[in-house]
Amino acid sequence: MPNEKLQIQAVIQNEETALKVSKSDVQVSDFELVTDIVVGKLTSNAKEFSAALENELKNYTVERYLDNPDAAKTDKAYLNKLKDDVADKRKLATATWNKPLEEFISVMKDLEKKIDSASNDLKVITDKAVQQEKDEKKAKIVEFWNTLNFTIVPLDLVFNPKWLNKTEKMSTIMEECQAIVEKINGEMATLKSMQSEDSEILLSFYLETLDLNATLQKGNQLKENRARIKAEEEKKAAEIVKHQEEIQTITPHSMTVENSGVVKEPVNSEQSEDPIATFKLEVTAPASKLLALRKFIDDNGITYKKL
Fold first, then answer.
1. Strands (E), 59-208
2. Given a cut of 80, is residue 76 above it in pLDDT?
3. What is the pLDDT of residues 27-46, one digit of tens each?
4. Of 41, 43, 42, 57, which Cα lies nearest the Cα of 6?
């Protein structure tokens, strides 16, 4: 039977006998936040109890209860109750240990939120001051850009946001603006010197992108497109010429209806049922229908000759 004297005990040492390990001081106006962090002490016979219980649990084997299910049921209930008792003491010790820390964390988090709120109120003022400085600096940059008399490209298209940083000096920004103007003028001169039939299109494309490589690729694409269009037009023209030549082989003269007649060939006994005859006629009709007529004649083995 189980040992009724086995008990687990846990005692959390109070603050007076706890061991101090560190201290943190924060001065705020006339108030001082002081935190004394101490190492708590938990007194428990858990290890000894565990060792004793493990030794006792060796008695609860399946073989021992094979012929005594009632005893198995009783001892199983005892073990379940013992487990609940161990769990309850663990939870109580944990809650008691964590309570001061949880209260401290709650107070600190609430205080942090209040500090953030006050800081955010001041952020509105600081952000406004920063934006004002950027606006004033941008106005100076715009003023200098206008002195360059370079209106073909708007400043916004080449404006670098980093220019508004405090670390960016106006002298450096002015040099970069001049370099941008020189670069654009040079690349536009390169495009104009190409004397391409797409010059105006390419210049317009360049002024939108300010990307010389992309503009050159655009020029090659336009050139290739023109070549494909020209090849397609030549192909269609050749097809029209061929079509007209085929029509002329069928209608070599002006298409007018003349007197028609049928000339019968001599008939032998084998042809008496389907005699051979010659029918002379000029036909006037759309070219497509004349071609269809010619195809019919060819498909049916009818011979013909030009008039």
1. none
2. yes
3. 454 556 555 656 677 777 88
4. 57
Kind of pairing between the strands at 19-28 and 31-39: antiparallel
With vertex at residue 170, the alpha carbon angle to CA 165 and CA 175, rounded to the nearest 5 degrees, is 115
Query: Is the overall model pTM greater than 0.70, yes or no?
Result: no
Nearest to 46 by CA among 90, 108, 81, 109: 90
Confidence at residue 255, expressed as pLDDT on a 0 to 100 scale: 42
Structure tokens at 185: 């003028």
Pairing label, strands 10-12, 42-44: antiparallel
pLDDT tens profile 253-268: 444 444 444 444 554 5
Please, are residues 303 and 282 in contact by the beta-carbon 8 Å criterion? Answer: no
Which residues neighbour 9 within 8 Å (Cβ) at sequence distance 6 or greater?
43, 44, 45
Residue with tokens 């006629």: 281
Residue type, 203: L
CA distance 240 to 246: 10
Q: Do you know the residue count of the chain? A: 307
Q: Are 12 and 40 in contact (CB under 8 A)?
A: yes
Is residue 216 a contact partner of residue 238, using CB atoms and an 8 Å limit? no
| Band of residue 158 on the pLDDT scale cut at 50, 70, 90 | very high
Structure letter (DSSP) for residue 266: P
